[in-house]
Design a protein that fits this description.
Elements lengths: L7 H7 L4 H5 L2 E5 L4 E7 L12 H19 L5 E12 L6 E12 L3 E9 L5 E13 L3
Antiparallel strand pairs: 1-2, 2-4, 3-6, 4-5, 5-6
């Protein structure tokens, strides 16, 4: 499914000076049809009541889906941009790490749709997200 072979170190270099880096998101695994990353649950990602902020989960989900689209695009004149994202937050998390795994739902010529499941350290589902990415010309 992925048309590019990229190391975890290369993925981390893409995140420098981005919101993903600020939140501590780390890519941990690249499979043939999935990518996994983890994100700390701490003061960077808490909401005022001391639990994981839903927006942080959405950043993790969009980061994973965007990277997955990047890995699928073979045309150097095309780039992936987020078009729509939704998320259902199912379980609070106070500390530790959450893990996100992205898999494809649809890979078309102009859109990609991704399923992102975020779990806690006990592998319990924390958030389900779906991201739609538009594939557009890089020079637009």
């Amino acid at each position: 499914m992925f048309t590019k072979s990229v190391s975890l170190d290369k993925l981390h270099s893409f995140s420098e000076n981005t919101i993903a880096h600020h939140l501590g998101i780390e890519f941990t695994e690249i499979g043939t049809d999935y990518v996994i990353a983890r994100m700390p649950v701490d003061k960077r990602t808490h909401q005022p009541f001391g639990i994981l902020h839903g927006g942080a989960s959405v950043v993790l989900a969009e980061t994973l889906g965007s990277i997955a689209s990047f890995l699928c695009i073979s045309d150097p004149e095309k780039v992936a941009v987020g078009l729509e994202i939704n998320a259902n937050h199912l379980r609070p998390v106070k500390e530790g790490y959450v893990y996100g795994k992205v898999t494809s739902i649809h890979l078309g010529r102009t859109t990609h749709i991704w399923d992102i499941r975020i779990t806690n350290e006990q592998n319990k589902l924390v958030c389900i997200s779906r991201l739609t990415v538009a594939i557009v010309n890089a020079d637009r």
